[in-house]
Amino acid sequence: MDSAAYVTLTRMAGLKREMQVIAHNIANAGTTGFRREAVVFSEFVVGTERQEPSLSMALGNTRQTYRMQGAFAQTNGAFDMAIEGEGYFQLETAVGIRLTRAGVFTPNEAGELVNMDGHRLLDAGGAPIFVPPDARSIVLARDGTLSGDGQPFAQVGLVRPVDPVTMTRAAGTLFAVDGATEPVEAPTILQGFLEESNVEPLFELARMIEVQRAYEQGQRLLEREDERIKNVIQTLGR
Asked: What is the domain partition of the chain in residue ranges?
């Protein structure tokens, strides 16, 4: 296989990954707190060890998460929370602390605030938040302070990674941070609201068409290259 085929194959492999990411974005356009992803292509240069120029290939192995804030949807739920500005909720999971922007919470049987998967929401000190069983009126202040019948009992903790590059998608709307995090100064949390996905379906559909056409062009190039090689072999074999 010659250089043209190798270059085309690396490009097509990256386009396939990008198509998978786009499909995942579209599937989660209605998922609360979801963050859009994209594939970042990089150039990989290989020396040919000949008099000819080096060989440049396109790799699509890196994913980028867009942190643009999504729209707010009002639910009026006492434990529905939306973050305005920077920051992530902290969740305690079986594999460690995970960050999320999805603010759908409810008290479990023990009175602890958990998300839909049962992961416990942590306060500013990193401890689970316990809702008093006799509290009738739950109020969330904009700074994250939770009060029951006028008595504060916890403060929702918001953090952000010191280096955004260290944050990677773990599963769904959860993110893992391979590095340090820091508290968000002057956090703003809205009660009775949820942050919607920041995916723009029309943009994703348009991008899907572009990627599909680019992939098809690569296929046609490989077919023509294969035909050219066959013709050369047949000519030399005569």
From this structure: 3-67+199-236, 72-195
